[in-house]
Structure formats: structure tokens, C-alpha cells
Task: inverse folding
């Protein structure tokens, strides 16, 4: 291993022939790469590796929704990134081939009173009862952010991925927290195509109240319908 200070070509990272380079605190570190590497094919190791990939995919999609990203950043433990917080909270629940109904998109929160939900071929519909039945809202909380992930699994063709996730959002201004509401979250064209390639579906939905400046004030727990 070698250390390089003040490189004239700037900070380095990645592979350089038989060396790998990374920059830490302004210092470039060069290390020899192994001549060969054989990944273990032991069943237990493969299972962990597959669950790792599933959970990382799930965490990435959670963070693609700004309100959920803000929630996880607010609640993450010191020294832990939001991504790692989501990963740590979900790894135990992931299967080797897909997320399960036990995975979560928010770290706790008030119970979400969902009356019904319907995953269609071009949109998601979620009927909410009055949120005031589960929490107290202040005059500062004026808007509502509805966020959802749908895991489509069991492909109709063997050449498709075992599962695909789509992320959905609907922002409602001047929300009436004491009334029922039907939230409609439309798919984009790519998401419609994905929806038609799979027969299995798992829904994860959560809501967050916001102030007039768009800051999340409180949020619901992750809701998944019982199959």
C-alpha cells in the first residue's frame, strides 16, 4: 500500500492497472489488487449476497421519494447514512428473490388508516379514513405527501427480473386531515410497462404532513395490505 500527497492530477479513485486507488481526507491511497478472486458459492453466503442486493434495491427506491428521504435523514442514528438506516431496518425482512410484506418504507410513525387500496395497471388508488383518528395535527400542518412503493414480482416471462420496484408520489395542498380522501397515484409509461410484466404485487404506502414551506412535520408508519 502506498500514500500519495498533493497529486498534480487531482484526487484519484478506481482501478489503475494492477492497483486500486481511493482518496481519503485529501490523501490518495494506492493498493495492489488481488490477482484473482473467487466468490464463495456456499448456499449461506449466496443467500446473504442475494438478500443484500434485494435490500439495497429497496433502499434506493425509498430514497428516490424526497419526503421519505427527508424522514430517514431526520431519524437516522449518528454516523449512519439514510441509506444504511433503511438497509439496516429492512435486511432481516427481505427474501432472496424480492422484498416481502414485512419490509418498511418509514421508521415507525402513526398508524395509517387505509380503508382500501387497489393496484391497477396504470395507477394506484388508496382510500384514507380521517387521519385525525390516528394523530393530532397542528395548524402548521397544511399539506399531505402520499408516498408508495409497489413491488411487482412473479414475472410472466422467465427472462424478466424476479421483481421490480416502482416509486409513486402525490402531493396534496390544503389537506383536510379530518376527512376521508381518495389518493390516486398515476404510473408513468415505464411503470405501466413494468406492471404488465408481473402477476404478483406488494404495496408499501406512507403519508407525511408538511408545513407551507414543504418541511415534513410528522409521518405515518409503513402500511402493507394483508394478502
Result:
Amino acid at each position: 500500500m502506498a500514500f500519495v500527497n498533493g497529486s498534480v492530477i487531482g484526487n484519484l479513485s478506481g482501478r489503475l492497472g494492477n492497483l486500486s486507488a481511493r482518496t481519503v481526507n485529501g490523501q490518495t491511497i494506492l493498493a495492489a489488487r488481488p490477482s484473482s478472486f473467487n466468490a464463495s458459492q456456499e448456499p449461506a453466503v449466496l443467500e446473504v449476497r442475494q438478500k443484500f442486493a434485494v435490500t439495497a434495491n429497496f433502499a434506493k427506491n425509498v430514497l428516490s421519494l424526497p419526503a421519505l428521504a427527508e424522514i430517514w435523514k431526520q431519524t437516522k442514528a449518528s454516523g449512519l447514512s439514510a441509506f444504511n438506516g433503511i438497509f439496516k431496518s429492512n435486511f432481516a425482512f427481505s427474501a432472496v428473490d424480492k422484498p416481502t410484506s414485512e419490509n418498511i418504507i418509514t421508521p415507525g410513525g402513526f398508524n395509517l388508516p387505509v380503508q382500501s387500496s387497489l393496484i391497477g395497471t396504470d395507477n394506484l388508488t388508496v382510500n384514507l379514513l380521517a387521519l385525525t383518528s390516528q394523530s393530532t395535527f397542528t395548524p402548521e400542518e397544511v399539506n399531505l405527501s402520499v408516498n408508495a412503493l409497489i413491488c411487482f414480482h412473479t414475472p410472466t416471462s422467465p427472462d424478466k427480473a424476479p421483481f421490480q420496484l416502482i416509486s409513486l408520489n402525490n402531493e396534496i395542498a390544503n389537506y383536510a386531515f379530518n376527512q376521508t380522501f381518495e389518493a390516486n397515484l398515476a404510473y408513468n409509461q415505464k411503470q405501466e410497462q413494468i406492471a404488465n410484466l408481473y402477476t404478483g404485487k406488494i404495496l408499501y404506502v406512507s403519508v407525511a404532513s408538511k408545513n407551507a414551506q414543504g418541511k415534513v412535520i410528522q409521518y405515518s408508519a409503513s402500511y402493507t395490505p394483508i394478502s
Summary: Residues 6-10 have pLDDT under 50 and may be disordered. The first helix runs from residue 43 to 63. The helical segments are 43-63, 66-75, 82-90, 189-195.
